[in-house]
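Table 4 source record.
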Amino acid sequence: MDEGRKYINDFALGTVGAFAIIGTSIMILYRYVINESYGDLLSLFIGMVGAFCYGKFVSSSKKYWLFGAAILLSGAGIVFMSGL
């Protein structure tokens, strides 16, 4: 892969990740302030990180990315079901 293309892909992934973290954090803080359950947003955030780990596993075939994805995605399900 061209080095410039890899840089652009990494930059785009980082930018999307930063906006997702900031947006999810603002929504969680808003729900915390108005005293509503924020478990669904927290599980969405954990699921995003798990999906990122799975994507890294697909591209690199390293087992620890799959292990992390499995833990994070199951954790997202647990947080969503508990309602926090």
